[in-house]
Fold this sequence. Notes:
alpha+beta; Serine Threonine Protein Phosphatase 5, Tetratricopeptide repeat; single chain; 14 helices
Amino acid sequence: MFYFLVFSMMIISGLFVVAPLIFRPSAGIERQDINILIFQERLKEIEDEDPNNAPQLKSELKRELVANAAREDLPLTEINSGKTSLVVLSILLPLISAFIYFDVGFGQGSIPDVHLAKKLANSDSSDLPSYRLFIQEVEERAETKPDDQDLKFLLARGYSELGDYDKAVLKYRELLISFPRDPGLLSNYAGALFVASNREMTEPVLRAVDNALSANPMDVAMMEIKAIASMADKDKASALAWFQKALDTGLVGQRAELIKGAMRRLAEPGDKESGLNEREGGDFKEEEKRGRQLRIQVDLARDIPRSVGARVYVYARAANGPPMPLAVRQINPDLLPKTIVLDDSMAMVDGMGLANFDEVVIIARLSQSGLVAPEIGDYEAVSPIVNLKKDPGIIVLNLKNAISE
């Protein structure tokens, strides 16, 4: 339909040029007709100007008319004033426009970007295989438009969603060259760098977080990173201060409740855990700590090769939330098939566990290198969205789909 409309408009625009040239009246005028018109006008002028000499002047004018009529009566045609050129241009213009569009516009213009925009609107980052294919298309498109900042941003965000934070960091750095003080880019870059650095507040991470906060002092994500780093350093006072700053921004909803829950746990006295030494009290507290649980059966297809240092990582992530794993375990692939349990005690950050999200996705990945980040040659299995308000039973994940890009 799009191409039909384009060509229809080209034809209609051409008609505006060609039609007047085709349907205009003939320009041919007989010389004799012109002479008669001039004779009549001259007679009228003689009668008005000099009535006394009018008969003599009229006789002379008639003799002149008869002499002109004796000459060959050739048609006097209008000189061609560019008619042929206009016709040629009206034909060439649509052809040249079509050539430029298909040679340059179609390959480098907006059509592929429109398709990508539609796929982006329909993409679901929780469906990792489909989302990975979408990111591959963005990568291919970015190769033809290496300076397109929008495509770079799509790749940076996509790599973060897929857990490939090293690549995300590189793309965000490229974007920051063009937009060094963009608050959103600074925040996303600092967050990706923090996760890529094993959630340690290294000197580069600290600088990135401080830059993001200087551009946007109300950046809750950066305050959370500061608080998490303080918790890792056992600095409860600093962690509580950063969490409180986040709440002071006016934060509401689930995220605010997560922060409040983390603050309550930080404020608890440490000696409350002494009851764990008693069997009954200890069992109760351990069960309370585990909270929600997921049982996952992980299997590996028989024909799947694996390296000596291969590991299987199984983790849960929020279906509609941060990409950070809510619970994670690793398995020796030689022990598969195996049924494991993921629970709240396996949360990487307090307040970001299975208890804090109702819908999750479970991912199992065979890493040939033993590293957490996905690589070509790894195998992956992804569950549908799991509602933790209901008992999902045993979730079966069979590792058989290779990661090709």
